[in-house]
């Protein structure tokens, strides 16, 4: 077996290189954790990282309040220089935006996201500085990434972050839209058309890798599990759920509150994350009944994991790998989970000794009561738990850095030849 390349030789390959990360201007979500991990990896390899955040809401450009709020909320993004762009207010009157807005009213989220990015100007500084590699996140950011690739003649990678048309179709199941509702096939066609501009497609989980390899067989594909910063080992006495405000999380939590909690008895649960506002809007009666369980957004997520004795993963639907599941793995505490919580990892969670799989509400409630009645297993002198070992094998920064470097280094070498 070939030995891993040394850190010294990797540093020589990446030294002096400018890597541009293009990504949506999001924070406090799983995707943001991936952006941070990418920047960490490239800087650890010796490259200089430039971040370009694209606002996904029309009418908020570089000097807007949205830009200031985003930059203030993402101070931990480890980039050497940072830029923000978005579609200016004046572009709202354009015929192209009107057409995209009409599609959006019918539930075609892809059309709106693509047009918002297309109407966003890239900062002039990014035309002047030499860029050696563009690492783009999400298909709808491709319009700007491809524009800059044409200027610099450098490789363009696209991190797909799941097959988004499936996510859009899921969101449309119960969302209000004009009729006729946008079709999955229409949104998928837009997604694939933008993806074709990339030189290499990177996928974060086995499900999306298999799907896109079949849909775009002519493209080069790579499976790279995301690096997720480890959470502290759980040493507390709380049973927690961690969830950000996205629709699949809402569906899982709605099921948990309506079906599991009435069967779980008086076991105290703490629900951490900004999912509270989505539940309040979409399920006000449930929110009112269980208001005391919600902690809301916290700037100290690590502290929440450190106080955990067990973590619940009531996942009922969704696509792509779950960042909160990876965080839960890293904490080392016992987990109660449904099988979909482990989607896209290519593993059988039934083999993890500190995981209780519960596929229906009675089983989930019984597992919670079981955990609450006994002292949880800790990572101690007897060694780390199965979940912590799985995290260390698949999702550490070191594993991500090595896999990413093996993919990118040959692209940089070929780019050097073409640019000289």
From TrEMBL:
Q: Output the SUPFAM superfamilies linked to this UniProt entry.
A: UDP-Glycosyltransferase/glycogen phosphorylase
The UniProt keyword set, sorted, is: Transferase
Q: So which domain of life are we looking at? A: Bacteria
Transferase in keyword set = yes
Question: PANTHER family annotated for this entry?
Answer: GLYCOSYLTRANSFERASE WBBK-RELATED (PTHR46401:SF2)
Indicate whether Transferase appears among the record's keywords. yes
Q: Which GO BP terms sit in this record? A: lipopolysaccharide biosynthetic process
MF terms (GO), sorted A to Z? glycosyltransferase activity
One matching Pfam family: Glyco_trans_1_4
Q: What is this protein called?
A: Glycosyltransferase involved in cell wall biosynthesis
């Amino acid at each position: 077996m070939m030995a891993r390349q040394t850190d010294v030789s990797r540093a020589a390959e990446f030294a002096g290189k400018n890597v541009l990360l293009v990504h949506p201007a999001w924070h406090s979500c799983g995707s943001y954790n991936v952006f941070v991990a990418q920047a960490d990896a490239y800087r650890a390899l010796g490259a200089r990282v430039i971040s370009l955040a694209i606002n996904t809401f029309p009418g908020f450009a570089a000097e807007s309040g949205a830009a200031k709020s985003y930059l203030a909320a993402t101070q931990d993004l480890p980039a050497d220089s940072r830029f923000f762009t978005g579609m200016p207010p004046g572009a709202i009157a354009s015929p192209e935006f009107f057409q995209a807005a009409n599609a959006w009213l019918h539930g075609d989220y892809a059309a709106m996201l693509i047009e918002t990015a297309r109407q966003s100007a890239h900062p002039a500084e990014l035309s002047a500085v030499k860029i050696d590699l563009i690492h783009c996140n999400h298909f709808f950011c491709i319009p700007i990434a491809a524009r800059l690739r044409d200027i610099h003649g450098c490789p363009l990678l696209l991190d797909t972050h799941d097959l988004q048309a499936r996510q859009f179709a899921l969101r449309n199941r119960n969302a209000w839209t004009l009729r006729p509702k946008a079709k999955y096939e229409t949104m998928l066609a837009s997604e694939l058309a933008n993806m074709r501009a990339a030189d290499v497609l990177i996928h974060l989980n086995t499900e999306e890798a298999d799907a896109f390899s079949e849909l775009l067989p002519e493209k080069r594909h790579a499976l790279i599990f995301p690096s997720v910063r480890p959470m502290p080992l759980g040493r507390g006495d709380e049973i927690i759920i961690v969830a950000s405000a996205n629709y699949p999380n809402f569906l899982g939590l709605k099921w948990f509150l309506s079906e599991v909690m009435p069967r779980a008895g008086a076991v105290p649960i703490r629900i951490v994350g900004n999912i509270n506002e989505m539940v309040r809007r979409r399920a006000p009666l449930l929110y009112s009944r269980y208001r005391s369980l919600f902690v809301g957004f916290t700037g100290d997520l690590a502290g929440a994991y450190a106080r955990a004795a067990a973590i619940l993963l009531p996942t009922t639907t969704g696509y792509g790998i779950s960042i909160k599941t990876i965080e839960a793995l890293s904490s080392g505490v016992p987990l109660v989970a449904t099988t979909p919580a482990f989607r896209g990892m290519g593993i059988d969670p039934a083999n993890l000794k500190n995981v209780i799989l519960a596929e229906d509400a009675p089983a989930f409630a019984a597992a919670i009561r079981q955990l609450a009645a006994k002292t949880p297993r800790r990572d101690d002198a007897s060694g780390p738990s199965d979940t912590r070992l799985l995290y260390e094998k698949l999702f550490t920064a070191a594993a991500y850095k090595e896999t990413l470097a093996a993919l990118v280094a040959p692209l940089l070498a070929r780019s050097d030849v073409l640019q000289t």
